[in-house]
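Severity: low
Component: inverse-folding endpoint
Summary: output formatting inconsistent between runs
Steps to reproduce: submit the following C-alpha coordinates with default settings.
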Protein backbone atom coordinates (compact mmCIF):
# COMPACT_ATOMS: atom_id res chain seq x y z
CA UNK A 1 0.00 0.00 0.00
CA UNK A 2 1.22 3.53 -0.85
CA UNK A 3 0.42 6.25 1.62
CA UNK A 4 1.19 9.95 2.17
CA UNK A 5 0.09 12.65 4.59
CA UNK A 6 0.04 16.42 3.95
CA UNK A 7 -1.08 19.16 6.37
CA UNK A 8 -3.63 21.89 5.82
CA UNK A 9 -6.20 23.65 8.01
CA UNK A 10 -9.99 23.85 7.91
CA UNK A 11 -11.94 26.91 8.97
CA UNK A 12 -14.55 26.88 11.75
CA UNK A 13 -15.54 30.42 12.61
CA UNK A 14 -12.28 32.14 13.48
CA UNK A 15 -10.62 28.84 14.44
CA UNK A 16 -8.44 26.95 11.99
CA UNK A 17 -8.12 23.33 13.19
CA UNK A 18 -5.33 21.30 11.62
CA UNK A 19 -6.47 18.85 8.94
CA UNK A 20 -4.35 15.91 7.94
CA UNK A 21 -4.89 15.08 4.27
CA UNK A 22 -4.19 11.34 4.08
CA UNK A 23 -3.91 9.70 0.68
CA UNK A 24 -3.93 5.95 0.23
CA UNK A 25 -3.41 4.12 -3.09
CA UNK A 26 -4.46 0.51 -3.29
CA UNK A 27 -4.94 -1.89 -6.15
CA UNK A 28 -8.45 -2.50 -7.39
CA UNK A 29 -10.97 -1.01 -9.75
CA UNK A 30 -10.22 2.67 -10.49
CA UNK A 31 -11.96 4.87 -7.93
CA UNK A 32 -11.24 8.23 -6.31
CA UNK A 33 -13.13 8.94 -3.12
CA UNK A 34 -12.74 11.72 -0.59
CA UNK A 35 -14.03 11.10 2.95
CA UNK A 36 -14.07 13.21 6.12
CA UNK A 37 -17.18 15.39 5.72
CA UNK A 38 -16.14 17.14 2.49
CA UNK A 39 -18.54 19.77 1.18
CA UNK A 40 -19.56 19.58 -2.48
CA UNK A 41 -16.77 21.95 -3.51
CA UNK A 42 -14.19 19.67 -1.82
CA UNK A 43 -15.64 16.61 -3.56
CA UNK A 44 -15.31 18.41 -6.89
CA UNK A 45 -11.63 18.69 -6.09
CA UNK A 46 -11.26 15.21 -7.68
CA UNK A 47 -11.83 16.65 -11.15
CA UNK A 48 -9.57 19.68 -10.64
CA UNK A 49 -6.75 17.57 -9.19
CA UNK A 50 -6.98 14.96 -11.97
CA UNK A 51 -6.79 17.62 -14.72
CA UNK A 52 -4.06 19.62 -12.93
CA UNK A 53 -1.85 16.51 -12.52
CA UNK A 54 -2.28 15.36 -16.13
CA UNK A 55 -1.74 18.88 -17.52
CA UNK A 56 1.40 19.22 -15.38
CA UNK A 57 2.77 16.03 -17.04
CA UNK A 58 2.30 13.77 -14.04
CA UNK A 59 0.55 10.43 -14.21
CA UNK A 60 -2.78 10.04 -12.54
CA UNK A 61 -2.43 6.97 -10.28
CA UNK A 62 -4.34 3.90 -11.40
CA UNK A 63 -6.33 1.82 -8.92
CA UNK A 64 -8.30 2.85 -5.86
CA UNK A 65 -7.53 6.26 -4.37
CA UNK A 66 -8.86 7.13 -0.92
CA UNK A 67 -8.37 10.61 0.45
CA UNK A 68 -9.22 11.03 4.14
CA UNK A 69 -9.51 14.51 5.56
CA UNK A 70 -8.90 13.90 9.28
CA UNK A 71 -10.43 14.58 11.78
CA UNK A 72 -13.38 12.91 10.08
CA UNK A 73 -16.16 14.71 11.98
CA UNK A 74 -15.00 18.25 11.12
CA UNK A 75 -16.82 19.74 8.11
CA UNK A 76 -14.41 20.75 5.30
CA UNK A 77 -15.22 23.61 2.93
CA UNK A 78 -13.62 25.32 -0.03
CA UNK A 79 -11.01 24.65 -2.66
CA UNK A 80 -8.03 25.01 -0.29
CA UNK A 81 -7.58 21.21 -0.05
CA UNK A 82 -6.81 20.84 -3.80
CA UNK A 83 -3.07 21.41 -3.41
CA UNK A 84 -2.58 19.08 -0.41
CA UNK A 85 -4.62 16.37 -2.14
CA UNK A 86 -2.54 16.69 -5.33
CA UNK A 87 0.71 16.61 -3.34
CA UNK A 88 -0.51 13.62 -1.36
CA UNK A 89 -1.24 11.74 -4.59
CA UNK A 90 2.20 12.57 -6.00
CA UNK A 91 3.98 11.55 -2.78
CA UNK A 92 1.95 8.35 -2.40
CA UNK A 93 2.54 7.38 -6.04
CA UNK A 94 6.26 8.25 -5.66
CA UNK A 95 6.21 10.70 -8.52
CA UNK A 96 7.60 13.19 -6.02
CA UNK A 97 10.79 11.85 -4.48
CA UNK A 98 9.40 10.15 -1.40
CA UNK A 99 11.39 9.70 1.82
CA UNK A 100 13.31 12.98 2.02
CA UNK A 101 10.50 14.88 0.31
CA UNK A 102 7.93 13.34 2.64
CA UNK A 103 10.01 14.35 5.64
CA UNK A 104 10.43 17.86 4.29
CA UNK A 105 6.67 18.12 3.96
CA UNK A 106 6.31 17.60 7.74
CA UNK A 107 5.96 20.91 9.62
CA UNK A 108 4.58 22.55 6.49
CA UNK A 109 1.04 23.47 5.61
CA UNK A 110 -0.14 23.70 2.01
CA UNK A 111 -3.08 25.76 0.77
CA UNK A 112 -4.37 26.38 -2.72
CA UNK A 113 -7.15 25.81 -5.17
CA UNK A 114 -5.93 24.25 -8.39
CA UNK A 115 -6.84 25.42 -11.86
CA UNK A 116 -7.10 22.72 -14.54
CA UNK A 117 -3.60 23.53 -15.82
CA UNK A 118 -2.10 23.38 -12.32
CA UNK A 119 -1.98 27.09 -11.54
CA UNK A 120 -2.67 28.03 -7.93
CA UNK A 121 -5.66 30.22 -7.17
CA UNK A 122 -6.36 32.26 -4.04
CA UNK A 123 -8.34 30.68 -1.23
CA UNK A 124 -10.72 32.68 0.99
CA UNK A 125 -10.34 32.89 4.78
CA UNK A 126 -6.60 32.15 4.90
CA UNK A 127 -5.77 34.60 7.68
CA UNK A 128 -7.05 32.48 10.63
CA UNK A 129 -5.09 29.52 9.20
CA UNK A 130 -1.93 31.65 8.98
CA UNK A 131 -2.37 32.78 12.61
CA UNK A 132 -2.75 29.15 13.76
CA UNK A 133 0.22 28.02 11.62
CA UNK A 134 2.41 30.69 13.18
CA UNK A 135 1.51 29.43 16.67
CA UNK A 136 2.57 25.94 15.60
CA UNK A 137 5.75 27.29 13.91
CA UNK A 138 4.64 25.62 10.68
CA UNK A 139 5.80 26.86 7.31
CA UNK A 140 3.04 28.02 4.98
CA UNK A 141 3.02 27.39 1.25
CA UNK A 142 0.25 29.49 -0.26
CA UNK A 143 -0.90 30.79 -3.67
CA UNK A 144 0.84 34.06 -4.56
CA UNK A 145 -2.53 35.86 -4.46
CA UNK A 146 -2.70 35.02 -0.73
CA UNK A 147 0.94 35.88 0.00
CA UNK A 148 0.34 39.33 1.48
CA UNK A 149 -2.39 37.98 3.75
CA UNK A 150 -0.19 35.17 5.13
CA UNK A 151 2.74 37.53 5.30
CA UNK A 152 0.87 40.00 7.52
CA UNK A 153 0.82 37.24 10.14
CA UNK A 154 3.84 35.05 9.51
CA UNK A 155 6.33 36.74 7.16
CA UNK A 156 9.22 34.54 8.25
CA UNK A 157 7.24 31.35 7.57
CA UNK A 158 5.48 32.12 4.28
CA UNK A 159 6.43 30.92 0.81
CA UNK A 160 4.30 31.72 -2.21
CA UNK A 161 3.92 29.85 -5.49
CA UNK A 162 2.05 30.34 -8.75
CA UNK A 163 1.91 26.73 -9.95
CA UNK A 164 1.73 23.15 -8.69
CA UNK A 165 5.09 22.42 -10.37
CA UNK A 166 6.80 25.13 -8.29
CA UNK A 167 5.46 23.56 -5.09
CA UNK A 168 6.60 20.12 -6.25
CA UNK A 169 10.11 21.45 -6.95
CA UNK A 170 10.13 23.00 -3.47
CA UNK A 171 9.00 19.80 -1.75
CA UNK A 172 11.54 17.77 -3.73
CA UNK A 173 14.24 20.26 -2.74
CA UNK A 174 15.30 20.93 -6.35
CA UNK A 175 14.14 24.58 -6.49
CA UNK A 176 13.15 25.85 -3.04
CA UNK A 177 10.63 28.67 -2.95
CA UNK A 178 12.01 31.84 -1.39
CA UNK A 179 10.67 32.98 1.98
CA UNK A 180 8.69 36.19 1.76
CA UNK A 181 10.67 39.22 2.90
CA UNK A 182 9.91 40.17 6.54
CA UNK A 183 9.53 43.77 5.30
CA UNK A 184 6.42 42.70 3.37
CA UNK A 185 4.74 41.68 6.61
CA UNK A 186 5.80 44.83 8.42
CA UNK A 187 4.54 47.03 5.60
CA UNK A 188 1.23 45.18 5.62
CA UNK A 189 0.83 46.07 9.29
CA UNK A 190 2.14 49.60 9.08
CA UNK A 191 0.05 52.26 10.73
CA UNK A 192 -1.78 54.58 8.41
CA UNK A 193 -1.42 57.98 10.01
CA UNK A 194 -2.86 59.90 7.04
CA UNK A 195 -5.60 62.36 8.02
CA UNK A 196 -9.13 60.97 7.60
CA UNK A 197 -10.85 61.72 4.31
CA UNK A 198 -14.07 62.78 6.01
CA UNK A 199 -13.43 65.69 8.36
CA UNK A 200 -15.64 66.77 11.25
CA UNK A 201 -15.06 70.38 10.20
CA UNK A 202 -17.27 69.70 7.14
CA UNK A 203 -20.29 69.48 9.43
CA UNK A 204 -21.62 72.97 10.18
CA UNK A 205 -23.35 73.80 13.44
CA UNK A 206 -24.53 70.78 15.46
CA UNK A 207 -22.35 71.62 18.45
CA UNK A 208 -24.16 69.23 20.80
CA UNK A 209 -24.12 66.35 18.34
CA UNK A 210 -20.40 66.87 17.70
CA UNK A 211 -19.75 66.91 21.42
CA UNK A 212 -21.72 63.65 21.79
CA UNK A 213 -19.73 62.13 18.90
CA UNK A 214 -16.47 63.12 20.60
CA UNK A 215 -17.62 61.55 23.87
CA UNK A 216 -18.73 58.43 21.99
CA UNK A 217 -15.29 58.17 20.37
CA UNK A 218 -13.45 58.79 23.64
CA UNK A 219 -15.31 56.18 25.70
CA UNK A 220 -16.48 53.72 23.02
CA UNK A 221 -20.11 54.66 23.75
CA UNK A 222 -23.19 54.00 21.64
CA UNK A 223 -25.17 56.96 20.34
CA UNK A 224 -28.57 57.65 18.78
CA UNK A 225 -28.97 60.78 16.64
CA UNK A 226 -32.56 62.00 16.26
CA UNK A 227 -33.36 64.74 13.79
CA UNK A 228 -35.12 65.86 10.62
CA UNK A 229 -33.89 64.81 7.17
CA UNK A 230 -30.76 66.49 5.86
CA UNK A 231 -29.49 67.93 9.16
CA UNK A 232 -26.21 66.00 9.07
CA UNK A 233 -26.86 62.78 11.04
CA UNK A 234 -25.25 60.48 8.47
CA UNK A 235 -22.42 62.98 7.97
CA UNK A 236 -21.67 62.89 11.68
CA UNK A 237 -21.75 59.09 11.92
CA UNK A 238 -19.43 58.67 8.92
CA UNK A 239 -16.86 60.87 10.64
CA UNK A 240 -16.63 58.72 13.79
CA UNK A 241 -13.94 56.29 12.49
CA UNK A 242 -11.72 59.32 11.80
CA UNK A 243 -11.90 60.25 15.50
CA UNK A 244 -11.04 56.79 16.82
CA UNK A 245 -7.45 55.73 17.52
CA UNK A 246 -5.97 53.34 14.91
CA UNK A 247 -6.19 49.63 15.63
CA UNK A 248 -3.21 48.01 17.34
CA UNK A 249 -1.61 44.99 15.68
CA UNK A 250 -3.61 42.36 17.59
CA UNK A 251 -6.89 44.17 16.92
CA UNK A 252 -6.03 44.68 13.26
CA UNK A 253 -5.36 40.97 12.79
CA UNK A 254 -8.60 40.04 14.56
CA UNK A 255 -10.57 42.43 12.33
CA UNK A 256 -8.80 41.18 9.20
CA UNK A 257 -9.44 37.54 10.20
CA UNK A 258 -13.18 38.20 10.51
CA UNK A 259 -13.21 40.03 7.16
CA UNK A 260 -11.26 37.14 5.62
CA UNK A 261 -13.76 34.58 6.93
CA UNK A 262 -16.56 36.84 5.71
CA UNK A 263 -15.17 36.54 2.19
CA UNK A 264 -13.66 40.02 1.86
CA UNK A 265 -10.49 40.48 -0.13
CA UNK A 266 -7.43 41.21 1.99
CA UNK A 267 -6.14 44.76 1.66
CA UNK A 268 -3.01 45.96 3.43
CA UNK A 269 -4.15 49.54 2.77
CA UNK A 270 -7.06 49.27 5.17
CA UNK A 271 -5.56 46.81 7.63
CA UNK A 272 -5.23 49.18 10.62
CA UNK A 273 -8.37 51.19 9.89
CA UNK A 274 -11.39 50.86 12.12
CA UNK A 275 -14.23 49.10 10.30
CA UNK A 276 -17.32 51.18 9.50
CA UNK A 277 -20.32 49.06 8.56
CA UNK A 278 -23.61 50.62 7.51
CA UNK A 279 -26.06 47.83 6.59
CA UNK A 280 -29.26 48.81 4.79
CA UNK A 281 -32.44 48.71 6.86
CA UNK A 282 -33.69 45.77 4.79
CA UNK A 283 -30.92 43.60 6.35
CA UNK A 284 -32.10 40.27 7.72
CA UNK A 285 -31.22 38.78 11.12
CA UNK A 286 -28.53 36.44 9.63
CA UNK A 287 -27.05 39.34 7.65
CA UNK A 288 -26.79 41.42 10.80
CA UNK A 289 -25.70 38.91 13.44
CA UNK A 290 -24.27 36.14 11.25
CA UNK A 291 -25.52 32.86 9.88
CA UNK A 292 -26.39 31.25 6.58
CA UNK A 293 -25.41 27.75 5.53
CA UNK A 294 -21.73 28.46 6.23
CA UNK A 295 -22.26 30.36 9.52
CA UNK A 296 -20.62 33.48 8.10
CA UNK A 297 -19.96 36.48 10.37
CA UNK A 298 -22.66 39.15 10.24
CA UNK A 299 -22.41 42.93 10.12
CA UNK A 300 -21.96 43.20 13.89
CA UNK A 301 -18.85 40.99 13.72
CA UNK A 302 -17.56 42.72 10.58
CA UNK A 303 -17.84 45.93 12.66
CA UNK A 304 -15.73 44.35 15.47
CA UNK A 305 -13.46 47.03 17.03
CA UNK A 306 -15.20 49.57 14.79
CA UNK A 307 -18.51 51.27 14.12
CA UNK A 308 -21.89 49.79 13.22
CA UNK A 309 -24.08 52.54 11.80
CA UNK A 310 -27.80 51.84 11.60
CA UNK A 311 -29.35 54.67 9.58
CA UNK A 312 -33.15 55.03 9.67
CA UNK A 313 -33.31 52.86 12.81
CA UNK A 314 -37.13 52.38 12.95
CA UNK A 315 -37.10 51.01 9.39
CA UNK A 316 -35.11 47.94 10.51
CA UNK A 317 -37.18 44.85 11.24
CA UNK A 318 -38.13 44.45 14.88
CA UNK A 319 -36.59 40.96 15.08
CA UNK A 320 -33.40 42.28 13.47
CA UNK A 321 -33.00 45.00 16.09
CA UNK A 322 -33.86 42.67 18.96
CA UNK A 323 -31.08 40.33 17.82
CA UNK A 324 -28.62 43.11 18.66
CA UNK A 325 -29.52 43.18 22.35
CA UNK A 326 -27.40 40.30 23.56
CA UNK A 327 -24.25 41.00 21.50
CA UNK A 328 -24.39 44.64 22.61
CA UNK A 329 -23.96 43.43 26.19
CA UNK A 330 -21.61 40.50 25.70
CA UNK A 331 -19.47 41.60 22.74
CA UNK A 332 -19.89 38.10 21.30
CA UNK A 333 -22.39 36.33 19.07
CA UNK A 334 -23.05 32.61 18.80
CA UNK A 335 -24.29 31.44 15.40
CA UNK A 336 -25.97 28.07 15.98
CA UNK A 337 -26.11 25.48 13.22
CA UNK A 338 -27.46 21.95 13.31
CA UNK A 339 -24.04 20.38 13.72
CA UNK A 340 -22.17 22.99 15.74
CA UNK A 341 -22.13 26.49 17.15
CA UNK A 342 -19.78 29.11 15.78
CA UNK A 343 -18.85 32.08 17.94
CA UNK A 344 -17.69 35.40 16.54
CA UNK A 345 -16.51 38.43 18.50
CA UNK A 346 -18.70 41.53 18.10
CA UNK A 347 -17.29 44.39 20.15
CA UNK A 348 -18.72 47.21 18.08
CA UNK A 349 -19.79 50.75 18.69
CA UNK A 350 -23.42 51.28 17.72
CA UNK A 351 -24.32 54.60 16.13
CA UNK A 352 -27.94 54.90 15.05
CA UNK A 353 -29.90 57.65 13.36
CA UNK A 354 -33.61 58.27 13.02
CA UNK A 355 -36.15 60.94 12.19
CA UNK A 356 -38.45 62.11 14.98
CA UNK A 357 -41.57 61.02 13.04
CA UNK A 358 -42.43 59.41 9.65
CA UNK A 359 -42.37 62.75 7.77
CA UNK A 360 -39.28 63.82 9.72
CA UNK A 361 -40.47 67.36 10.45
CA UNK A 362 -41.85 66.84 13.96
CA UNK A 363 -40.94 69.82 16.13
CA UNK A 364 -40.31 72.06 13.11
CA UNK A 365 -41.12 75.66 14.16
CA UNK A 366 -43.11 76.17 10.92
CA UNK A 367 -45.52 73.48 12.10
CA UNK A 368 -45.32 71.62 8.78
CA UNK A 369 -45.52 68.17 10.41
CA UNK A 370 -48.90 66.53 9.88
CA UNK A 371 -48.15 63.21 11.65
CA UNK A 372 -50.82 62.38 14.20
CA UNK A 373 -49.72 61.42 17.73
CA UNK A 374 -50.75 57.82 17.05
CA UNK A 375 -48.66 57.66 13.88
CA UNK A 376 -45.66 59.07 15.76
CA UNK A 377 -46.17 56.63 18.64
CA UNK A 378 -46.29 53.67 16.24
CA UNK A 379 -43.19 54.93 14.42
CA UNK A 380 -41.15 55.33 17.59
CA UNK A 381 -42.54 52.07 18.97
CA UNK A 382 -40.73 50.18 16.21
CA UNK A 383 -37.56 50.58 18.27
CA UNK A 384 -38.02 48.63 21.48
CA UNK A 385 -37.45 50.16 24.90
CA UNK A 386 -34.82 47.55 25.84
CA UNK A 387 -32.75 48.50 22.78
CA UNK A 388 -33.05 52.24 23.51
CA UNK A 389 -32.05 51.48 27.10
CA UNK A 390 -28.79 50.03 25.78
CA UNK A 391 -27.84 53.22 23.95
CA UNK A 392 -25.53 55.35 26.09
CA UNK A 393 -26.58 58.65 24.55
CA UNK A 394 -29.64 59.85 22.62
CA UNK A 395 -29.14 63.28 21.11
CA UNK A 396 -31.41 65.64 19.18
CA UNK A 397 -29.92 67.00 15.98
CA UNK A 398 -31.91 70.10 14.98
CA UNK A 399 -32.01 71.62 11.48
CA UNK A 400 -28.98 73.84 10.81
CA UNK A 401 -29.95 77.56 10.82
CA UNK A 402 -29.22 79.08 7.39
CA UNK A 403 -26.61 81.51 8.78
CA UNK A 404 -24.45 78.72 10.26
CA UNK A 405 -23.38 77.44 6.83
CA UNK A 406 -21.39 80.65 6.28
CA UNK A 407 -19.70 80.60 9.69
CA UNK A 408 -16.07 79.43 10.00
CA UNK A 409 -15.61 75.65 10.17
CA UNK A 410 -15.36 74.11 13.62
CA UNK A 411 -12.70 71.79 15.06
CA UNK A 412 -10.99 69.45 12.62
CA UNK A 413 -11.05 65.68 13.08
CA UNK A 414 -7.30 65.55 13.77
CA UNK A 415 -7.62 67.85 16.82
CA UNK A 416 -10.61 65.92 18.18
CA UNK A 417 -8.81 62.60 17.55
CA UNK A 418 -5.86 63.82 19.62
CA UNK A 419 -8.17 64.62 22.57
CA UNK A 420 -9.88 61.25 22.12
CA UNK A 421 -6.55 59.44 22.14
CA UNK A 422 -5.50 61.20 25.36
CA UNK A 423 -8.81 60.29 27.05
CA UNK A 424 -8.40 56.65 25.94
CA UNK A 425 -4.88 56.54 27.37
CA UNK A 426 -6.26 57.69 30.75
CA UNK A 427 -8.88 54.92 30.64
CA UNK A 428 -6.36 52.23 29.71
CA UNK A 429 -4.02 53.35 32.51
CA UNK A 430 -6.85 53.36 35.08
CA UNK A 431 -8.81 50.24 34.17
CA UNK A 432 -7.22 48.63 31.10
CA UNK A 433 -10.40 48.96 29.01
CA UNK A 434 -12.53 51.76 27.55
CA UNK A 435 -15.27 53.21 29.78
CA UNK A 436 -18.17 51.74 27.76
CA UNK A 437 -16.94 48.21 28.49
CA UNK A 438 -16.12 48.81 32.14
CA UNK A 439 -17.31 46.04 34.48
CA UNK A 440 -20.06 46.98 36.94
CA UNK A 441 -17.77 46.03 39.84
CA UNK A 442 -15.41 48.85 38.80
CA UNK A 443 -18.13 51.51 38.91
CA UNK A 444 -17.62 52.56 42.57
CA UNK A 445 -13.85 52.96 42.04
CA UNK A 446 -13.96 54.70 38.65
CA UNK A 447 -17.31 56.37 38.03
CA UNK A 448 -19.28 57.22 41.18
CA UNK A 449 -19.11 60.93 42.03
CA UNK A 450 -16.72 61.59 44.91
CA UNK A 451 -18.80 64.30 46.58
CA UNK A 452 -22.19 64.14 48.30
CA UNK A 453 -23.70 66.69 45.89
CA UNK A 454 -22.87 64.57 42.87
CA UNK A 455 -24.45 61.50 44.45
CA UNK A 456 -27.51 63.57 45.29
CA UNK A 457 -27.87 64.73 41.65
CA UNK A 458 -27.60 61.14 40.45
CA UNK A 459 -30.23 59.93 42.90
CA UNK A 460 -32.63 62.73 41.95
CA UNK A 461 -32.15 62.01 38.22
CA UNK A 462 -32.83 58.29 38.70
CA UNK A 463 -36.05 59.11 40.51
CA UNK A 464 -37.21 61.97 38.26
CA UNK A 465 -36.44 60.38 34.88
CA UNK A 466 -37.26 56.86 36.05
CA UNK A 467 -33.84 55.63 34.91
CA UNK A 468 -33.41 51.86 34.81
CA UNK A 469 -30.45 50.28 36.56
CA UNK A 470 -28.79 49.94 33.16
CA UNK A 471 -29.45 53.58 32.20
CA UNK A 472 -27.96 54.70 35.51
CA UNK A 473 -24.80 52.70 34.83
CA UNK A 474 -24.58 54.16 31.33
CA UNK A 475 -24.99 57.72 32.59
CA UNK A 476 -22.15 57.10 35.04
CA UNK A 477 -19.87 55.69 32.34
CA UNK A 478 -20.58 58.61 29.98
CA UNK A 479 -19.90 61.04 32.87
CA UNK A 480 -16.59 59.24 33.46
CA UNK A 481 -15.66 59.74 29.78
CA UNK A 482 -16.57 63.44 29.95
CA UNK A 483 -14.33 63.76 33.03
CA UNK A 484 -11.50 62.03 31.10
CA UNK A 485 -11.93 64.40 28.15
CA UNK A 486 -11.99 67.40 30.50
CA UNK A 487 -8.98 66.14 32.47
CA UNK A 488 -10.83 65.64 35.79
CA UNK A 489 -9.70 62.84 38.08
CA UNK A 490 -13.17 62.52 39.69
CA UNK A 491 -16.68 62.60 38.26
CA UNK A 492 -18.52 65.66 39.55
CA UNK A 493 -21.93 67.32 39.17
CA UNK A 494 -20.95 69.08 35.91
CA UNK A 495 -20.06 65.82 34.14
CA UNK A 496 -23.11 64.00 35.53
CA UNK A 497 -25.41 66.79 34.36
CA UNK A 498 -23.93 66.72 30.86
CA UNK A 499 -24.27 62.93 30.70
CA UNK A 500 -27.93 63.24 31.72
CA UNK A 501 -28.48 65.96 29.10
CA UNK A 502 -27.24 63.49 26.49
CA UNK A 503 -30.12 61.08 27.21
CA UNK A 504 -32.87 63.14 25.65
CA UNK A 505 -35.34 60.26 25.23
CA UNK A 506 -35.24 59.47 28.96
CA UNK A 507 -36.05 63.05 29.81
CA UNK A 508 -38.79 63.29 27.20
CA UNK A 509 -40.27 59.96 28.32
CA UNK A 510 -40.29 61.19 31.92
CA UNK A 511 -42.19 64.29 30.91
CA UNK A 512 -44.53 62.30 28.69
CA UNK A 513 -45.46 60.04 31.59
CA UNK A 514 -46.06 63.13 33.74
CA UNK A 515 -48.40 64.70 31.12
CA UNK A 516 -49.98 62.35 28.51
CA UNK A 517 -48.54 63.20 25.09
CA UNK A 518 -46.28 61.53 22.53
CA UNK A 519 -42.54 61.52 23.19
CA UNK A 520 -41.77 63.60 20.13
CA UNK A 521 -44.56 66.09 20.48
CA UNK A 522 -42.30 68.10 22.75
CA UNK A 523 -38.73 69.03 22.33
CA UNK A 524 -36.48 68.25 25.27
CA UNK A 525 -35.15 71.17 27.26
N1 LIG B 1 -24.72 70.24 9.35
C1 LIG B 1 -24.39 70.19 8.06
N2 LIG B 1 -23.26 70.77 7.62
C2 LIG B 1 -22.90 70.71 6.32
N3 LIG B 1 -23.61 70.07 5.38
C3 LIG B 1 -24.75 69.48 5.74
C4 LIG B 1 -25.19 69.49 7.11
N4 LIG B 1 -26.33 68.79 7.18
C5 LIG B 1 -26.59 68.35 5.94
N5 LIG B 1 -25.66 68.75 5.07
C6 LIG B 1 -25.64 68.46 3.63
O1 LIG B 1 -26.76 67.63 3.38
C7 LIG B 1 -26.38 66.34 2.92
C8 LIG B 1 -27.22 65.28 3.61
O2 LIG B 1 -26.85 65.19 4.96
P1 LIG B 1 -27.03 63.86 5.79
O3 LIG B 1 -27.08 62.70 4.86
O4 LIG B 1 -26.04 63.80 6.86
O5 LIG B 1 -28.48 64.09 6.39
P2 LIG B 1 -29.28 63.17 7.38
O6 LIG B 1 -29.52 63.94 8.63
O7 LIG B 1 -28.60 61.88 7.55
O8 LIG B 1 -30.66 62.99 6.62
P3 LIG B 1 -31.68 61.73 6.57
O9 LIG B 1 -32.51 61.79 7.82
O10 LIG B 1 -32.51 61.98 5.36
O11 LIG B 1 -30.88 60.50 6.47
C9 LIG B 1 -24.92 66.23 3.23
O12 LIG B 1 -24.24 65.43 2.29
C10 LIG B 1 -24.44 67.65 3.19
O13 LIG B 1 -24.14 68.02 1.86
MG1 LIG C 1 -29.04 59.89 6.90
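Observed output (run 2 of 3):
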Amino acid sequence: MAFARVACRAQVGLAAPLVSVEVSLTSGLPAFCIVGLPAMVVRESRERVRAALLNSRFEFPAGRITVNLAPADLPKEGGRFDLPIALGLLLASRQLRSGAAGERAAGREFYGELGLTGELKAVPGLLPAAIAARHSHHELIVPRANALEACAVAPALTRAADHLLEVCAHVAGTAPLALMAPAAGRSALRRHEAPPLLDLADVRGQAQAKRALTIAAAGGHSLLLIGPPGCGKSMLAQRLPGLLPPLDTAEALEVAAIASVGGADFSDQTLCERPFRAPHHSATVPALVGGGARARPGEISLAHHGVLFLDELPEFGRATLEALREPLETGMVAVARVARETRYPAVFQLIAAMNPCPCGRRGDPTGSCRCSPDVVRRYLGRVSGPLLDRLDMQVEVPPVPAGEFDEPAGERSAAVAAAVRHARELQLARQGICNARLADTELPRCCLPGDARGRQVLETAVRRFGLSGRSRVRVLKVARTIADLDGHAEVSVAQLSEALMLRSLDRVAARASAAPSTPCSRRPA
